[in-house]
Amino acid sequence: MKRRLALASLSLAVALGCGTLPAAAADTDRSTTTSTTTASANAAPDVDVTKVKAHLTELSAIAGRNGGNRRSTGQGYDDSVAYVKGRLQAAGYTVTEQPCTSGCTSGAGPNLIAEWPHGDANDVHMFGAHLDGVSAGPGMNDNGSGSAALLETALTLAQQNPTMRDRVRFAWWTDEEQGLNGSDFYVRSLSSAERSRIKAYYNFDMVASVNGGYFINHITSAAAAPMKAYWDSLGLQPEENTEGAGRSDDYSFEQYGIPTSGYAMGAGARKTSAQAAKWGGTAGASYDPCYHRSCDTLSNINTTGLDRAADGIAHTLWQRAVDTGAGGGCDTAGAVANGGFESGTAPWTGNTGAIGAHSGQSAHGGTRFAWLAGYGSTRTEAIGQTVTVPSGCARVTLGYWLHIDTDESGSTPYDRFTVKADGSTLATLSNADARSGYVQRSVDLTAYAGRQVTVTFTGSEDASLQTSFVLDDVTLQGA
């Protein structure tokens, strides 16, 4: 990741050791060891993290043979390009080295662009990571981690060889550490028509920070929906990547109006107490204590985070570009718009005054939520939106996080929360289901496959004693 000049003095002042810090909470996702899982017709495969780490080992050895780094102007970078290019060509990719002829540091090596030659070339989904590092060290987390995860995802796609709906293009960027120069040159070199074919760009920069968190660029955007849905399915409660805003190659695409997102686990900023409570690790310490330092070696890699990032990349790719079966596939990305309520009230309808950053309750993620009922008097409030349920999924669920806060006692259901689809009740909860904090819940929408359906959440109270139903992070997920 490129360091902003305004942050340089702070980062240089941090003098932390580089021993392995506690990883995130215990894994609930697929194994971090070798897996032979094969993708079903509508599910992404497990990207083998041991193979991702094997690529990191190769990049480390390249740095070791070239003065200890892989800076864009050195032989370490050129050898990194040659390694990645060789693996991609052997897998059947169309691979191009693009010299950066303007805007890059003198002597910088090329961008590496690899296209899987299947799917609609008018609908391109790009996945990228910068391949260069700083002069201080081998750059294993920054950004060997993103480069290696991207490479193994590309090789997994080639090995699985699914039927493609859209085109997938991978990129490994030069000269990012000097100012996002390689990616900027690439986007500038495209014609307007070529840019319009890129439906989204996904960036992966520092996805294995040893004291890291789970961050997503533009987390509430439509582009981010499949990335967030995957990490939500692991219970990770990801947050917006505020530290990385404008500091990595996605920014080059943003400048031209191309939708972007991506994963990151953090750089030189410090983990908060709240983040340590939900993800593990050390509060008050940098996400990556070896950021831009010589100790950014193979020992500076969080394998659990790396695995979760690689699998999330594959999930996003499959959702966006793979033809997952007849009838429109299983792409649930963006089916629920503004599910975290961070973008105002649209397209929610009903009692939309319930949506906001109200005092007295807190959000599950972000700052906003929907607070239904909670008046201590007879009252009913409801919000809803129309969603399209894809037809190509074996199962579709509507997931949501709900906090029930009540002054009632006992098990009598005085106040109720219901979830309905086109008026049919799919779930009912009450004051008797109150818990401390949010609980993740879901309802099955498989019966509505291939249809538009209006989903409604309703909170209702009787005449006395308040019960609040606090709703957040609504998603549609397919399997």
Automatic annotation (TrEMBL):
CDD domains assigned: M28_SGAP_like
Which family, according to UniProt? Belongs to the peptidase M28 family. M28A subfamily.
Q: Which UniProt keywords apply?
A: Disulfide bond, Hydrolase, Metal-binding, Protease, Secreted, Signal, Zinc
Of the GO CC terms on this record, one is: extracellular region
Q: Which organism is it from?
A: Streptomyces griseomycini
Name of the protein in question: Peptidase M28 domain-containing protein
Where do transmembrane segments lie in this chain?
Answer: none
**Compartments, as annotated in UniProt:** Secreted
One Pfam family this chain carries?
Peptidase_M28
Residue stretches making up the Peptidase M28 domain: 111-316
Matching PANTHER family: METALLOPEPTIDASE M28 FAMILY MEMBER, PEPTIDASE M28 DOMAIN-CONTAINING PROTEIN
InterPro entries assigned to the protein according to its UniProt record, in alphabetical order? M28_fam (IPR045175), M28_SGAP-like (IPR041756), Peptidase_M28 (IPR007484)
Major location category of this protein: secreted
Cofactor(s) recorded for this entry are: Zn(2+)
Keyword Hydrolase among record annotations: yes
Checking PROSITE patterns in the record gives: PROKAR_LIPOPROTEIN
The signal peptide, as residue positions, is: 1-25
Q: Which GO terms describe its molecular function?
A: aminopeptidase activity; metal ion binding; metalloexopeptidase activity
Q: How does it assemble?
A: Monomer.
Biological process annotations from GO: proteolysis
